[in-house]
Design goal:
This protein is of the alpha+beta class. The chain contains twelve helices and 13 strands.
Length: 323
């Protein structure tokens, strides 16, 4: 990408944005090079919109000893059926995008004594403890006496569903692959939202959200590095009716149904822009119409229009220049 910026003193003369050899006269060019009022997108601890918190997944600092592949899980269950009480699905960006199965040992404080009676678990706990003791980080060393626990635990019990978003997504994708899973899932190395609704899944799966994230998140090389503090917490969602809410939920469900038509394709392959199945693309296009109708009654034709509308909504919600 090449950006050429012309700078001048404050003036009432016409301002222009050039994109794809098209010149557009605009009222203002903000610091994001959008035809919109100036906005300062700060890192926020919580969302400006009425949506649940987004957290980063749990981190074990365990040397890999609290994780199991599918074969290890089956062998353990075959020899010690009770071990099933202490095994949870573990999903990060890699597992979600590539369709891989991974599991983790998950033991609560009041379960440790009983779980330790299973010899393979006790052995793993010893290995975790040794790994943490040998760490150069004092906080990790201090956690050696709790070898059955993840050091950084962001899991929230009682949630029916969770939404997982990869923290890095290819810039080639037209949509960010968003996953929705049962609440017992332990999220690792990805962003997670607990108590997630189909409505929120739809918003995060839309092209208007992608446009916002591409502009406001950081980059890892050229790929999108999703920022919950900037992109998610500043994502402006206008007020909506029950009818609009249900329309987005229905469109979001259609996306999940379209994915299920291709059980042998991973999310990574489903969201390859050159190979995206027509049913999935159509479902996303229908979702886009429902989501964008929250912001504008007229169709939003390109990314500049999407972003201009988003900044206008953001400023109204935060008391900015469009409020």
């Amino acid at each position: 990408m090449c950006v050429i910026i012309g700078v001048r003193n404050i003036s009432a003369q016409a301002k222009y944005l050039y994109s794809n050899n098209i010149r557009t006269k605009v009222n203002n060019i903000n610091s994001y090079l959008i035809d919109a009022a100036e906005s300062n997108l700060e890192r926020r601890p919580s969302p400006i919109s009425n949506i649940p918190l987004m957290l980063f997944g749990s981190i074990a600092y365990d040397g890999g000893h609290l994780f199991l592949d599918d074969d290890e899980r089956q062998q353990l269950i075959g020899s010690y059926p009770d071990v099933l009480n202490y095994i949870r699905p573990a999903i990060g960006a890699v597992e979600m995008l590539r369709g891989l199965k991974r599991w983790c040992i998950w033991v609560e404080d009041d379960e440790y004594k009983k779980a330790s009676q299973i010899p393979p678990l006790l052995e793993r706990f010893k290995q975790v403890s040794n790994f943490r003791i040998s760490s150069k980080t004092k906080s990790t060393q201090d956690f050696a006496d709790r070898p059955y626990r993840f050091k950084q635990n962001t899991y929230k019990s009682g949630a029916e569903n969770i939404i997982i978003i990869p923290r890095v997504s290819s810039e080639r994708r037209e949509y960010i692959p968003v996953g929705i899973f049962s609440g017992e899932t332990i999220t690792v190395d990805a962003q997670v939202v607990y108590d997630a609704s189909l409505f929120l899944f739809g918003l995060l799966s839309s092209r208007i959200h992608v446009a916002w994230v591409k502009l406001t998140s950081g980059r890892m090389k050229s790929d999108i590095r999703y920022s919950s503090a900037v992109s998610y917490n500043n994502f402006p969602i206008p007020e909506y009716t029950e009818e609009e809410y249900q329309a987005i939920e229905s469109a979001a469900l259609s996306i999940l149904e379209a994915r299920e038509l291709y059980p042998n394709l991973t999310l990574s392959k489903l969201y390859d822009p050159l190979k995206m199945p027509i049913e999935l693309r159509t479902a996303h296009e229908n979702l886009d119409k429902s989501v964008e109708s929250l912001y504008e009654t007229k169709p939003l034709l390109d990314e500049q229009q999407l972003l201009k509308t988003l900044f206008s909504t953001y400023n109204k919600m935060t008391g900015g220049n469009d409020a």
